[in-house]
From TrEMBL:
This is 2-C-methyl-D-erythritol 4-phosphate cytidylyltransferase. The gene is ispD. Catalyzes the formation of 4-diphosphocytidyl-2-C-methyl-D-erythritol from CTP and 2-C-methyl-D-erythritol 4-phosphate (MEP). Belongs to the IspD/TarI cytidylyltransferase family. IspD subfamily. It comes from Allobranchiibius huperziae. CDD domains: CDP-ME_synthetase. Pathway: Isoprenoid biosynthesis; isopentenyl diphosphate biosynthesis via DXP pathway; isopentenyl diphosphate from 1-deoxy-D-xylulose 5-phosphate: step 2/6.
């Protein structure tokens, strides 16, 4: 084991997407093949982009298609790959800028690997390993055979793991392994050969590789939303009535109410942070929302959602899971009424500070184009909930509505 990396280590992710996809046989590079309406490389980049401490995203694409990949993943450095996967990883590694200590190498073909897996791998590298690889236990008995098919060994399957990506490395270890000029079907094998210590951590069935048409179908069925799963994103300044609206919705329909204040106070109570806790509440909300959407629940995200980053994260999450998204902005057109609400409201979460009217007015809040804008000065909470449920029942028209 190497000396532990500081937890502030900056992460670079290399998504290798330069393969031809011969076994899939889609008539185009595999990373461009659509899954739930978006190319595999877009799914893979979305998950990679969420990893904590990301400094740079590199996508390695087939040489003739660089411009197409640049348009699909505009925030990535896109470089041309080589004939073998190892060559493509080397090209990606060469494109990484300074200040990166931890490198994650990921197959675009493992398009559904979740961000949480990237985070777990990166954290384990920071604990001080040269390489960290996610893997799943092998359930079949595996035989080793010779060229004639004769069995030469039956390894104990308890000691076997089928490994996945993202695979994580200290930058030094990965560069050392690649400088040896050898090749392998995964980069961890090269680190093993160069004497590095490689840790296998628990993988994720979602990170399975899409190799054949049947794999693509399986991935599509994982993404197909259970009937009715919908993400309702509420947004608006503190005191406009988001939580009241969410409660009115919950009284009418079984749903998951994700209230960021509850999460933030729990984090503070745990002693990990103090108010204001930064983005942790939002990040926990994204993960919980994904989990509940996968269970087929409708989820109401109740938080200010004032900045484009948060709104984009919700959009990406809904698109990635193929669920309907309804963005609802609540506002209070009557300033006196808004101020009255802000100054008279009694917090129902012990320990959670209430923002003052001045703090509310200074809160960062960018103009938005949601599906629905509702004036809470003009409608009762019950009426607002009914309006939102009516919008859910209607087929999505793409029209922006203000009430
Ligand atoms: N020369 C190569 C070969 C593979 N890859 C990438 O490595 C990952 C794993 O490879 P695989 O799933 O085998 O993809 P393909 O090589 O495209 O598939 P096939 O062998 O069926 O052609 C994929 O994301 C693929 O794009 C790459 O970047 N460069
Ligand atoms: C890196 C890898 O995905 C780990 O399972 C795998 O080895 C890639 O192999 P492929 O032959 O390029 O699909």
């Amino acid at each position: 084991m190497n000396d532990a990396h500081p937890s502030s280590a900056e992460v670079g992710v290399v998504v290798v997407a330069a393969g031809l996809g011969t076994r899939l046989g889609a008539g185009m590079p595999k990373a461009l093949v659509p899954l739930a309406g978006q190319p595999l490389v877009v799914h893979a980049a979305r998950a990679a982009r969420g990893v904590r401490g990301l400094r740079q995203l590199v996508v390695v694409a087939p040489a003739p298609d660089l411009e197409q990949f640049r348009a699909l993943v505009p925030d990535a450095v896109v470089v041309a790959g080589g004939a073998q996967r190892t060559d493509s990883v080397a090209a990606g590694l060469g494109a990484l800028g300074p200040g990166i200590d931890v490198v994650l190498v990921h197959d675009a073909a493992r398009a559904l690997a979740p961000t949480a897996l990237f985070d777990r791998v990166a954290s384990a590298v920071r604990e001080g390993y040269d390489a960290v690889v996610p893997g799943l236990a092998v359930h079949d008995t595996v035989k080793q055979v010779d060229d004639a098919g004769l069995v030469t060994a039956t390894p104990d399957r308890d000691g076997l793991r089928a490994v996945q990506t993202p695979q994580g490395f200290t930058r030094d270890a990965l560069q050392r392994a690649h400088s040896g000029g050898s090749a392998a079907t995964d980069d961890a094998a090269m680190v093993e050969r160069s004497g590095g210590r490689v840790l296998v951590i628990e993988g994720d069935p979602l990170a399975e590789k899409i190799t054949t048409a049947a794999d693509l179908q399986n991935a599509a069925s994982r993404l197909r939303p259970p009937d009715g799963a919908t993400l309702i994103v509420l947004g608006g300044l503190p005191g406009v009535g988001k939580t009241t609206t969410a409660r009115a919705l919950a009284a009418r329909k079984a749903l998951t109410h994700l209230r960021v204040d509850v999460i933030e106070q729990a984090v503070v109570d745990s002693g990990l942070e103090q108010h204001p806790v930064g983005e942790v509440g939002y990040r926990v909300s994204y993960e919980l929302a994904a989990h509940h959407l996968d269970l087929g629940m409708t989820v109401v995200a109740d938080m200010v959602n004032g900045v484009p980053y948060a709104r984009d994260a919700w959009r990406d999450l809904a698109a990635g899971r193929g669920v309907r998204l309804l963005e609802v902005e609540l506002f209070c057109s009557d300033q006196d009424e808004h101020r009255r609400r802000a100054s008279t409201r009694v917090g129902d979460i012990e320990g959670m500070p209430q923002p003052s009217w001045e703090q509310i007015q200074e809160r960062e809040y960018h103009p938005w184009q949601p599906d629905l804008r509702i004036d809470t000065a003009a409608h009762s909470p019950g009426r607002i909930a009914d309006t939102i449920l009516a919008a859910l029942a209607a087929p999505s028209s793409g029209e922006r509505i203000t009430r």
